[in-house]
Design goal:
Pnp Oxidase, Chain A
């Protein structure tokens, strides 16, 4: 693991993710992605900045294929996404042929700037939504 990735992982785990998870309750700009751990089989929840678009939730994985949740998606693409207080079930699709810069800018005007600073290998992802559940 590169030094940049190692430092970023510690900062994200201890500071950024807890704050972002809290913010996800009151804004639709942040969702919580629930994957199934590829080794443990346990639910893993990660805050992601994205948007509802049509029948999908779209976002960019900052670290692309290096991110554990992306590795979990590769092992089992069935995921859940919470937007505010609503859970949506779906199937995650990695979009390696999409331009991450254009994709990120389509989500939020400042998103590509953040990805350039904090991202290592950005990868667009689309979660095709199937069903909605409260709680």
């Amino acid at each position: 693991m590169s030094t940049k990735r190692a430092v970023k992982a510690v900062v994200a785990k201890r500071f950024v993710n807890p704050l972002t998870r809290s913010a996800a309750r009151w804004t639709s700009l942040v969702g919580v992605l629930e994957t199934t751990g590829r080794k443990s089989g346990l639910p893993r929840r990660t805050p992601v900045g994205g948007r509802m678009r049509g029948g999908a939730y779209v976002f960019v994985a900052e670290d692309g294929l290096h991110a554990d949740y992306v590795k979990n998606i590769q092992a089992d693409p069935h995921v859940r996404v919470r937007v505010k207080d609503t859970w949506y079930e779906g199937r995650a699709v990695l979009l390696p042929n999409e331009d991450p810069k254009r994709f990120a800018r389509s989500l939020f005007p400042f998103e590509w700037t953040l990805l350039r600073v904090f991202g290592i290998d950005p990868l667009p992802i689309r979660v095709e939504l199937q069903e909605r559940r409260q709680g």
